[in-house]
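Justification of resources, computational component.

The compute hours requested in this renewal are based largely on the per-chain cost of generating structure records like the one below. Each record pairs the submitted sequence with a full structure-token output. That output is archived, and it is also reused by downstream analysis tasks.
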Amino acid sequence: MSELKIRSENVEGAEVSWFAPICNGDDQYIGKHDPKYKSNWTNTSEIVLTAERNGFRNVLCPSSYQVGQDTMTFASALAPLTSTINLLPAIRCGEVHPPMLARAIATLDHILQGRLTLNIISSNMPGEDKSSKDRYQRSREVVEILKQCWTESQLKYEGQFYNFNIDNLKPVRPYQQNGGPLLYFGGYSEYGVELCAQHCDVYLMWPETENNLDGIMRRMSSKASENNRTVDYGLRVHVIVRETESEALDVTRNLMSHIDYERGKEIRNRALDARSLGVQRQSDMRNASDKDGFVENNLWTGIGRARSGCGAAIVGDPDQIVSKINDYIKMGMRSFIFSGYPHKDECDLFGKYVMPQLKTFSMPEVQSRKTSSLPHTPLAAGPRN
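The structure output for this chain reads:
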């Protein structure tokens, strides 16, 4: 079996992050929407501020075309209201003219004073039906353009989708002068794995059995080594923690008490990525679970009955949750993005029962230690020496 190599191999603990439901979907019961939990500025900004108070180190700000708020606008408005938590906005490659996207990201990075990370998304735009190969090629070009904008004095680029020759890149110089914000990425196809291996920093996975996750990580590690790189590994997963295991199990039953098969299928299929390889893997995991929806100890797949994407939760009492997270850390994972229902309530429960037992760090902090000799400079500064 190949050796697993990770970027933060010698760093103890993990980056423990929460989720901002700016794309709607926050509720007490899956499939029964309560306007109280509507995705709006008041609700979702309070969730992020709650996560910061509870000691989370980052927060994923997702992107969707069906419902919800604009990701970059939300992150920009939230930036000056926070002081310790990082933001992880999702960037849909191809949605915005890449040099303009580089400028927007650099501006946000300065507002956050380096507390910015980016989630690279490669899904089709509405009305598109591009092949996996073309979607990831477009994302590769966007990432390469962003990195050139952030690190060079000129942009000279010729690709399949983009061609640029721009002399002055001073307006797109980010606060983080060590190459720009760290890039988080999730994708299972051969083209996605290759893109992450070449350019990204944290490879995000959806929940599966530990054996399956180990295989995915080793595949990525091997591909990254071929490109003379290493990546960190992360898990995007829901969580249900209660004082006792029986209470947590009661929540799983209550959470799904208002959903039926047809309604669940409708919710799953409305997402743009409903036919992706990752979604299919979530379906396979759900089909392999027992009659109560558990595919292995403390990993419950019931949420996937009514979600496209991340479809499982770690369920249990505080000791069980901590033990499961530590098992993942021992496997080599260094980043976790948790969520729960309702998001603010579960965030408080996790902060009360689990967070005090975890050693945490933020990925940008680790990165800055490696490049501490590089100074921070104003937005209009020229290229680094």
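Residues 6 and 232 are 5 Å apart (CA to CA). The mean pLDDT is 89.
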